[in-house]
Design goal:
- About 15% of the residues have low confidence.
- The termini are far apart.
- It contains 5 helices and 18 strands.
- It is globular, with a radius of gyration of 21 Å.
- Strands 1, 2, 5, 10, 11, 12, 14, 15, 17 and 18 form a 10-stranded antiparallel sheet that branches. An 8-stranded antiparallel sheet has the order 3-9-8-7-6-13-4-16, with no helix packed on it.
- About 40% of the residues are buried.
- The chain is α+β, with helices and mostly antiparallel strands and about 325 residues long.
- It has a domain of about 190 residues: Jelly Rolls (Sandwich).
- β17 and β18 form a beta hairpin.
Length: about 325
C-alpha cells in the first residue's frame, strides 16, 4: 500500500507542476538549448504569431474590433485592424508620442540637409540598391550617453524598407533617453507606429541579435515581414515592395544643440543580408554608403566574415 500511495502522490505532483508551469515560446529556440546562429536559422515552418492566434480566438467569440484591441492590450499585445499587423508590447499613448522627436531614415548625401532639420544628428550605413528581403545584425548598443543639457534622446536602430524615400519602412530600435533605462521598441511607419516591446535587460556591451525578414508572401496590404529579437518573434506587418533596402542608423537629439560624448561605441559586429534564398554576410561586394553628421562618428571595415560598423558621439 505504501508503494501505491507514493506513486499516487508523485502523479498528483507531476500533474500540478504541468498545470502551473506552462511554457509559451514565440521564438525558434527551445528551453535549455543553445540559441541558433544566423548561418542556420530559419523561422519556424508555417509560423503563426501569437497575437494573430489571439485575434482569431477573440473573433470566434464574436468580439468587435475595439473589444479585441482592448483585450490584447491587457495581454501586452498590439493589433492594427486595418491591415492585420501585429506586435508584442504596449502601444504608446498620445502623450508619449507627443514627447518623441520627429524622425525618419537619413537621406542620401545629396539631400541630407533636409533630414537634419528633423533629426538632430545621425550616422547611417545602408545598401544603395533595393535588392534585399531581410537584414540581421549582432548589435551591442554601447553607452548611448545622455544628459540634461546634452543628448536627451538616443536611438540605435536597424531598418528595412524604402529607406531613401522614407515612404515605407520597419525597424528595431534601442532607446536610451534622459531619465530612462535602455528600452527595446519596434516601429512601422504606416502600421501602428511605435510600440514599446520591453526594457533592455542585456548589458550594453553584450550583443543581441536583431532580424527583419520578408517571408515571400503577400496579401492585399503588401509583402509580409516578421521582426525577431534574440530569435523571439516581436512584430509582423507589410512592406510595399518585395525587394527593399537595408540599413543601420544612430540618432541623437538635443533641444540645446549640445550633444553628450559616448563612453563606448555602438557596435554592429556581424551583419547579414537575405537575398530571398539564403542569409549572406554583408560584405564589400555589396554596394553600400555611409554618412555621418558631426559630432556623430562612424567607422567601418571588413572582418573575416562581414562588415563591422561602429558609431559614436565625440565632440
Amino acid at each position: 500500500m505504501g508503494g501505491k500511495k507514493k506513486v499516487c502522490v508523485l502523479t498528483v505532483m507531476l500533474l500540478v507542476f504541468s498545470m502551473l508551469c506552462p511554457i509559451v515560446l514565440t521564438g525558434a529556440t527551445e528551453p535549455n538549448k543553445s540559441p541558433p546562429t544566423l548561418d542556420t536559422w530559419l523561422p519556424p515552418k508555417d509560423f503563426v504569431d501569437p497575437v494573430t492566434l489571439k485575434v482569431q480566438a477573440f473573433k470566434a467569440q464574436g468580439l468587435k474590433e475595439s473589444q479585441i484591441t482592448a483585450e490584447l492590450e491587457k495581454l501586452g499585445m498590439g493589433w492594427y485592424p486595418e491591415t492585420g499587423a501585429t506586435w508584442m508590447g504596449r502601444t504608446l499613448t498620445s502623450e508619449e508620442l507627443a514627447e518623441m522627436p520627429a524622425r525618419a531614415p537619413a537621406k542620401a548625401p545629396s539631400n541630407e540637409g533636409a533630414t537634419l532639420r528633423q533629426v538632430s544628428r545621425t550616422s547611417c550605413m545602408r545598401t544603395t540598391s533595393a535588392s534585399w528581403k531581410g537584414v540581421a545584425s549582432e548589435i551591442a548598443s554601447g553607452s548611448m550617453s545622455v544628459s540634461s543639457q546634452g543628448t536627451q534622446y538616443h536611438y540605435v536602430s536597424m531598418q528595412l524598407g524604402s529607406l531613401d524615400s522614407g515612404t515605407n519602412w520597419v525597424e528595431t530600435v534601442i532607446t536610451h533617453n534622459y531619465g530612462e533605462t535602455y528600452k527595446w521598441y519596434t516601429y512601422d511607419n504606416d502600421e501602428g507606429g511605435f510600440s514599446f516591446y520591453a526594457d533592455k535587460i542585456t548589458s550594453t556591451t553584450s550583443s543581441d541579435i536583431y532580424i527583419i525578414l520578408l517571408d515571400g508572401t503577400q496579401d492585399g496590404n503588401g509583402w509580409n515581414y516578421d521582426v525577431w529579437i534574440n530569435f523571439y518573434w516581436v512584430r509582423s506587418g507589410h512592406l510595399s515592395n518585395q525587394y527593399v533596402q537595408a540599413g543601420f542608423q544612430k540618432e541623437v537629439f538635443s533641444s540645446s544643440g549640445q550633444f553628450t560624448d559616448d563612453a563606448s561605441h555602438a557596435k554592429y559586429y556581424r551583419n547579414w543580408l537575405h537575398n530571398g534564398q539564403d542569409w549572406n554576410y554583408w560584405r564589400s561586394t555589396t554596394n553600400s554608403w555611409w554618412s555621418t553628421a558631426y559630432p556623430v562618428r562612424e567607422t567601418h571595415y571588413m572582418t573575416t566574415t562581414s562588415y563591422r560598423w561602429e558609431t559614436w558621439v565625440q565632440n
